[in-house]
Amino acid sequence: MAILETPFARLDLERYPAQGNSPLQPFNAADEYLLQRLHEQQLPAGSRVLVVNDGFGALALSLCGQYQVSSCSDSFLAQQGLANNAEANAVDVAGIGQVSRTCELQGDFAAVLIQIPKTLALLQDQLAGLQPLLKPDTLVLAGAMIKHLPRAAGDLLEQYVGPVQASLAWKKARLLQAQVAGLEAQPGPVPVTYALPEFDLQLLNHPGTYSQEKLDVGTRLLLQHLPQDLQDKRVADLGCGNGVLALACARLNPQAEFVLVDESHAAIRSAGDNWQAAFAGRAAQILVGDGLRTLPAASLDLVLCNPPFHQQQVINDFLALRMFRQAHRVLKPGGELLIVGNRHLGYHVKLRRWFARVEQLAAHPRFVVLRASKAADK
After folding, report:
1. Per-residue model confidence (pLDDT) at position 316
2. Which residues lie closer than 8 Å to 3 by C-beta, 6 or more apart?
3. Distance separating alpha carbons of residues 378 and 193, to the nearest angstrom
4. Taking 60 as the threshold, does the pLDDT of residue 310 lie above it?
5. What is the pLDDT of residue 315?
6. Residue 309: which residues within 8 A CB-CB, separation 6 or more?
7. How many angstroms separate the CA atoms of 4 and 11, rounded?
8. CA–CA distance, 260 with 240 (Å, rounded to integer)
9. How many CB atoms lie under 10 A from the CB of residue 19?
10. 309: closest CA among 225, 222, 210?
11. Residue among 214, 221, 212 at smallest CA distance from 366
12. Which of 134-143, 176-185, 269-278, 309-318 has the lowest mean pLDDT?
């Protein structure tokens, strides 16, 4: 837990998923800077305020006691963090309108607070959706830690909102304030499509989907080692992104059943569109969620995974190890986890915490493909 104290509220906040003895904070100086600048504006109580890319509820929970708050986030984990922190602080989360895209909102807002995301295509999509929600006097503030603030973020704000003024640095954070200029509405970014001819696939990627522009090297390596003898077994693509692993495996195994899950709403939109385009009429579970947490124990035969090595701007292997633990729980005895990972992360050692056997199937200067087998019943 970490305490966030601002002019609006005093909150005990925690990251999600919780990570014991972690020095990582559930908010940063950009959150504090955004809240302080909003407080200086003295908006009337009850004003409509939108927060975008709220990490774990620091912005929305601080403001919901004074304003009508809506929250937009592509991340299911961030939304779950908001819900958990609301419960811990006795805040009624039902009073916060939550959406995954700004274009799902209606009406207008007195203020918009944006934590600038890592992916500029996602920011562009969010700004395009914001345009009809802005009034001439809407306060539009975007913030980020300076080391994560791309120059193009200001360009996008100017393109979709109006002239931008950068603040002074404060605790290594900076704000960009955009003046609503009544610009002619501009379209958002179009989904990017690339081909995977060896599997007869066209992969569509909505803004914000991992590896949006092209297939990443690690996934390409893993694709070379997909099984072809699964028959009617149940397979999960964990952290599916655009669904490429499940789609390719489904091409090779026409009778197998598939579950695709990711915490990104954009990824799940992409995976759903791609599955429908490739296998119209073939059933699959396509879920936005916290990994395999909601699946029954011992319900899968195979899990495919190219695990993330970061959460938001923080690089670590915590989420990957959590996904391995989830995979072990949902696999049947003798079931297998097939992954690709960076060599230096040492997953071959870490997987032995849960799996009876770990073997390397392929090596690359940067990546390895590993197969981890769950102990079979005796």
Report:
1. 62
2. 10, 11, 12, 13
3. 47
4. no
5. 52
6. 315, 316, 317, 320, 342, 345
7. 5
8. 6
9. 15
10. 210
11. 221
12. 309-318
The answer on pLDDT for 326 being more than 60 is yes
Phi-psi category of residue 89: left, alpha or beta, with phi > 0 → left and psi -120 to 50 → alpha: alpha
In angstroms and rounded to an integer, the radius of gyration of the C-alpha atoms of the chain is 22
Compute the distance between CA of residue 39 and CA of residue 36 in angstroms, rounded to an integer.
Answer: 5
User: Which token pair is 184?
Assistant: 């002619």
For the record, the structure tokens of 354 come out as 């849960």
Calculate ∠ Cα 348-349-350, nearest 5°: 95
> Hey, what amino acid is at 306?
N
According to DSSP, residue 170 is labeled B
Chain position carrying tokens 């729980």? 329
CA distance 119 to 313: 10
Give the alpha-carbon dihedral of 313, 319, 321, 299, to 10 degrees. -160
Q: Which two tokens stand for residue 107?
A: 């009406």
Torsion of CA 141, 212, 81, 71, to 10 degrees: 40
Q: Are 126 and 109 in contact (CB under 8 A)?
A: no
pTM of the predicted structure, to 2 decimals: 0.95
Alpha helix (H) residue ranges in the chain: 29-41, 58-63, 76-88, 120-130, 151-160, 217-223, 244-252, 265-279, 318-330, 347-350
Residue 311: band (very low, low, confident or very high) from pLDDT cuts 50, 70, 90: very low
For the stretch 146-165, pLDDT in tens is 999 998 999 999 999 999 99
**Residue-range domains of the chain with CATH:** 2-179 (3.40.50.150), 192-373 (3.40.50.150)
User: With 50 as the cut, is the pLDDT of residue 21 above it?
Assistant: yes
d(CA 269, CA 129): 16
What is the token pair recorded at 303?
A: 């899990």
Mean pLDDT of the chain: 94
